[in-house]
Amino acid sequence: MIKIFIFTYVLLVLSLVTFIGYLLWFSIFNFERVRDVNCQKKNGIYKLYIMVPLLNEENTIFSYVNDLINELDLVDQTIIPNIILIDDASDDRTLENIYKLQDLTRHLRPNVYVLDRHFPNAQQGKGAALNYGLSLISQMDDEFDKQHIIVGIVDADGFISAKHITDVIGAFENNPVGMVQTAVSMNKPENNWLSRMQDIEFLGANSFMQESRNRLGEAIASGNGQFITLDMAEAVGWGNSLLEDFEFTVRGLFKDYRALFLPTAIVYQEAVEKLRPLLRQRIRWCEGSMQCLFKYGVRIMTSPKINTGVKVDMTLFLFLPFFSMLLNFANISSILVQITNIFSRKPIPVLIVFTTVIVFTLIIWFYMALEYYRNTNNLSVLKCVWRAWQCIIYNVILSFIPYAALGYLLKGRSTWDKTAHAQ
What is the pLDDT of residues 376-402, one digit of tens each? Predict the structure, then answer.
């Protein structure tokens, strides 16, 4: 009986300490975020290559990639636009449609390059496809230095406006960084509840976190909307983990390259509108985070090239899946104990604790709603707040993903489970 009491007490303390720690973290970074980034385009000439990895994307070629090519035609005249379409051995009509698109857009400014990958090297993950595209850029004879050649990554379902592309290049022109990461939003957030939750997750909570990282001095690449100098891309390259964007960020830090988050530039992408594929996507991301912890965790914590704030942030990020598994258990146990206390002891203290936790949780997500409101154009503050508070439920659902990710990792499953577009 004593052991059960001690175990329960430990869980309660763990749950309480975690909640207080999160409140402190939130309070500190809420007032230390960096949103204003100098991205005014000057007169410098830059060459831009946007790489689009494609695998069975016959439905997205004309709906997304064609729009992206047309938008590249409108970028500032100081930017020379190119787009590299990388077919990763698709078994549908993706490659055929790429060549059609190349012919249809020959009159536009962007040079359209088509890369056709073949087995056994194809379909080895997004990182491998990006490295293949990078090899083409590196082999081109060019009069530009590698700081003035920018490599961008936009997924097959992605779109970024000409103005925001120009702002990205302006951010490179005004800041000594090797990478600029844009914000990410859903292109049709009103389609269903999951779409709305992903929109506030990316454009609200994730943007909040990235602006905090700007203060620390290192943003984290988020895959879609990732722009890098050719100098950094060649020096770092993409790895083979299931979270290749974070891995790229870490490998860049080891070589003294820094990243910046540009909240005013946005890449729009498809939301995952069904629960099953969403869970598969997030399990893949979570497993990739676990891979990065085992592969780079010690190096991150001991590297002399990474400042203390970034070390703490990245270490917490990598340990979060494991910690959340323990925390879920602690929280559920705490709730059950407190409910029991309501009926067996004085209920007032328990109700005070529950009310306090709920109020502070709502306050935190109220600030996320304000961030979301600043990044959207057509939603009222009240609608943003209501959507943010619903996101609490969404995050509770996703909090159980690490259990499945750990199971896959222990079984040695590390295949690239690609998210289907145009579902």
Answer: 878 899 999 999 999 999 998 998 899
Distance in angstroms (rounded) separating the CA atoms of residues 224 and 229: 16
Contacts of 312 (CB under 8 A, 6+ apart): none
Quote the Cα angle for 304-39-131, to 5°.
55
Give the chain's radius of gyration (CA, Å): 23
Name the helix (H) or strand (E) containing 139: helix 126-139
- Can you give the pLDDT at residue 423? 47
User: What's the token pair of residue 339?
Assistant: 């409910």
- How many angstroms separate the CA atoms of 173 and 217, rounded? 17
220: left (phi over 0), alpha (psi -120 to 50) or beta: beta
Q: Please report, in angstroms and rounded to a whole number, the separation of the first and last CA atoms in the chain.
A: 53
pTM of the prediction? 0.87
Helix ranges restricted to H, 156-202: 162-174, 193-200
Helix (H, G, I), strand (E, B) or coil at 346: coil
Cβ contacts of 263 within 8 Å, gap of 6 or more: 35, 37, 183, 207, 210, 211, 375
Report the alpha-carbon distance of residue 88 to residue 255 in Å, rounded: 29
| Residue 413 in this model has a pLDDT that exceeds 90 | no
